[in-house]
Amino acid sequence: MNEDKNYWPYALIAFFAIFVSTVVLFSIWSITRNPVDLVVKDYYAAELLHQEQIERSQRAAMLPDPPRIAYLPAARQVAVSFPAPPESGHLHFYRPSDSTLDQHYVLTLDADHRQTFDLLQFEPGLWRARLKWIQDGEDYFIEQPLVLD
Q: What is the pLDDT of residue 1?
């Protein structure tokens, strides 16, 4: 007796096995090819300090003559100027798309309470200049977006 075999169950099982394998492999490939960077490494610890950052920003917004962050595109520089010298401070150039490109500078102002930062080595694109300083015992913070060509 020669019976005809039905191959449909085997074909369906093979199709679904290949489909599931393809989805799993594509998921693994897409996850490893596109790393997800958090804004900061200790994201959750930084989130707990967020209220302090809001208070720094509010204090800076209430200043009658706040410091200025000026982008000079022709020279590809950023100039920071203060009306009065702060006790201390730093400027953080934050790159939202790649945290490995971030740059930190301690403020060392000249006699006119200014400091210029050269941005020639910076990658083109969106940056955020984050200025944090202490004046009269109070912390202040301002942030300004910069788009470098």
A: 55
Q: Does domain 43-148 have CATH number 3.40.50.720?
A: no
The pTM score is 0.69
Only one residue has tokens 């000079």, namely: 72
Summarize pLDDT for 4-19 with one digit per residue, the tens: 788 899 999 999 999 9
Task: Identify any residues that bridge with 134 across adjacent strands, giving them in sequence order.
Answer: 88, 139
Handedness of CA 97, 98, 104, 110 (dihedral sign): negative
What DSSP state is assigned to residue 123? Answer: P
Residue 133 · residue 140 · CB < 8 Å: yes
List the one residue out of 42, 56, 141, 41 whose CA is nearest residue 90. Answer: 141
| Cα 69 to Cα 53: distance, rounded to the nearest angstrom | 18
Backbone angles phi, psi at 3, to 5 degrees: -95, 145
